[in-house]
Design a protein that fits this description.
mainly alpha; rod-shaped; 4 strands; two-stranded antiparallel ribbon; two-stranded antiparallel sheet; single chain
């Protein structure tokens, strides 16, 4: 063995301190490497957790959106049904009003049959009158308008005062 010169105590302390510092540096480097590896592992874990949370939240969002879409479809059906009913009622109202007016203004079946009987009676009476002198030409003459008749002057006058004349056509 070689003899080493005796070192002073300060140098020994400094050497030991350097050795301890180097040992601590190596431990710190080792710890830093383990911390980096652990951090990378945590990064993956955090990403997985974020992914799971995001998927769960998006699933809830999709569920809410599906319920909202179902509600909107139901609301659309109700609105269409209400529109159809309103349209039917609004189109039936004028028809109902017209029907009521026609029912009120036009005669009923009994009234029409009575009017037909009356019309036939009038037609029979008119025919009777035509056969028996209803072809007299009556007018309003003069001022003020008075009733006058066309007479046959060639037929002569009748009555005690000759004040009756034969009507034209008889």
């Amino acid at each position: 063995m070689t003899d080493l010169p005796a070192a002073d105590p300060d140098t020994l302390k400094l050497g030991m301190l350097l050795e301890a510092a180097q040992s601590h540096q190596e431990l710190a480097d080792d710890s830093l490497k383990r911390l980096q590896a652990h951090t990378q592992g945590l990064d993956g874990v955090v990403r997985d957790e974020i992914r799971r949370a995001l998927i769960a939240e998006l699933g809830d969002l999709v569920e809410h959106l599906n319920r909202a879409a179902y509600s909107l479809r139901a609301l659309s059906r109700v609105a269409q049904l209400r529109t159809v009913w309103c349209g039917a009622v609004l189109s039936a109202c004028p028809a109902l009003v017209v029907s009521l007016l026609v029912w009120w203004w036009l005669p009923s079946g009994d009234q029409i049959s009575k009017l037909r009987i009356q019309q036939q009676q009038f037609a029979d009476n008119l025919e009777y009158l035509r056969r028996n002198g209803a072809q007299i030409d009556l007018r309003h003459c003069g001022n003020p308008a008075r009733l006058c008749v066309r007479v046959d002057r060639q037929a002569g006058a009748f009555g005690q005062q000759a004040d009756y004349l034969i009507v034209q056509g008889y």
